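Blinded run. Sample ID left blank on purpose so nobody reads anything into the name before looking at the predicted structure. Input follows.
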Amino acid sequence: GSWPAQIWARFASGALAGTPYGQLAEADTEGMVTVEVDLSTGFLAGPYCPRSHVARIRVPADQVPTVVCPVHNPAGVVQAGAATVPDVIGLDLGSAVEALTTAGFTNRIVWTDGGALAQGTVFNQSPSAGFPAQAGSRIRIVVAGPEPGSVIPSLLGFPVGQAVAELQAIGAAVRIVTEPEANPDDAARRTGVVWKQEPVPGTSAGQPVTLWANP
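Blinded prediction complete.
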């Protein structure tokens, strides 16, 4: 009846879909871990959780509940082996990862559109700051911007050698067209500089890129 239980039920039904009854132990377990969960609350099972509510289940490592059930267990048990999740919202990615590591946690990074936020800024996290998550738990942080290497960067104005290196770093094939831009004065002033590219910046990586550069 509670929302954690509803969330866990929805996750578990999706995670186990297509796995025949009695064959769970033989299912592909790569990247999976075994946890005991209180199915009535959705939290990690503690010693005071009713055993009829507890199930031992294998789940993806980055979706394991991180908080011991506070409904059936006293605060001392919930806090045992736990550390307080730091607030990393508003930090740049490097600072956020450092803060989580210092506090004893690992991290899972999710890149997504952050609107007007500067690329690389953390704007969401789970569990929230202040939760007593178990030490070593993986904290999910949502970061503004496309994942590095997932899109073709803007290379206009780059020296052609640097532009080629940027593309090679993300595994993109490069074709160079040595051709002056339309304005002769600009072409003479910007020797060896990229003035046009296809596809346009922001296009998904994984396709060849053509650069036009002044001779």
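Unblinding after everyone has recorded impressions. The chain has five helices and ten strands.
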